[in-house]
Please model this.
Amino acid sequence: MDNVTAQNILDYAAALELQTQSGPAADFSEIITAGKSINIATAGQITFLSSKYAATANDLLAQCNSNVIVLEETFKPLAKPEVFQTKHFIFSTEPKNTVSAILLHFFNKQVKHTIHPTAIISAKATIGSNVNIGPYSVVEDDVTIGDNTNIGNNVHIQHNCTIGNNVVIKSNTVLGNSGFGLTKNEAGEYAEFPHFGAVIIGDNVQIGSNVCIDRGSLNDTIIHKGVKVDNLVHIAHNVEIGENSLIIANTMIGGSTKIGANCWIAPSVSLRNNIVIGDNTVVGLGSVVTKSFEDEPEIAGVPARKLDEFKALLAQFKKMI
Model:
């Protein structure tokens, strides 16, 4: 949509059944071009203020130069029209989500669903509708790609991978390479164990740049629906990741490890092979997980342990310093 005005955004907020309030000197025809954080937003940009900033909400509002602000509903008493005469306020219980919805509605650039002429697509691959495949990407035999999937540049999808609908795979990622599975022969030499398994990616998965997801050896490597994988992540053979889990940058997941649903794996975590992480687990920054935690909501440390044990150990270290 060209020339999005403050009035357009207020109308959309009303369609979302959100309350709005405009100061007596607010300009309803002001053109809004982008969203920015509240500390740097200027006129012509939309911003938000959530409960996370309750301690500094007054100061942030007073210093904000944006005229369209999505405000945490509990901050409504701060939005006095006589003070903020030029501002439009949208009240929401989830300001960040509301701004996200507004930006996606008005400013999201639609992906052109094309297969770039430099992409190499096997005649034995099955490609769904409205699929985008970027320059120099390779799709090998017996690959299935679902509808509305967006594959970036220089992505290599090796044979026997299945990718669901509405998946995003960013540039320079490799799916379906043979895992690092070796056996030692009678001469004491290492030989590669054959990898005949697949990589299966569920619907609504996002995979970042420079990610490597290895195929299974005999079983499959499975990434269930809604999983989000950040940049620079390694997922080894036979790994299974449950629905809606988040795997953050620089994480390494060893072979045959299973991660439950709705987990948060923080940056630079290493998980050894053949362990189980239960549903709804948070694994702290830089942790090295050497054993299973099937029913523990928070773990952290090197090696990883229950969070209360980790905190107690830190307290002991502080006494020694």
Notes: DSSP finds four helices and 34 strands in the chain. The CA atoms of residues 168 and 206 lie 5 Å apart.
